[in-house]
Amino acid sequence: GWNEFISDPPHALWKLLEAFKDPLILMLLASAVISVATKQYDDAISITVAVIIVTLVGFVQEYRSEKSLEALNNLVPPIAHCLRNGQKQDLLARELVPGDIVEVGLGDRVPADIRLLQCSGLEVDESSFTGETVPCQKQSEPVLASKGELAELTN
Q: What pTM did the predictor assign?
């Protein structure tokens, strides 16, 4: 099959409810419950309205950014510069197969799960996977055993 992810996007209601897993939101909701228990209804209503507004604004922003990213990926499919059967080729990233040697240059998107053969001072923006804001340094030396997360590998 194609070298691409196929996933069913979660229902929008589930994504909205996931926002309530945030510890700060849970703490605010707990304070609203305490306000109701102490009969301070104005505070409870204010806190609840604020939580609903923050949650809805965050949900709408995340939904819009996901749709924009999806549209951009459909508009400009990722291209891979690779060496296949001794020939340099530009292929759609989804057409890559095991054994292809991919050349990645400055500003290129890494088109697949690849093993680095050679690099010098390579830094990769993995923010879409890990949420980290700082680029991650990579190396071409083999990584034989890992006790950490897959996202923490440097090769």
A: 0.52
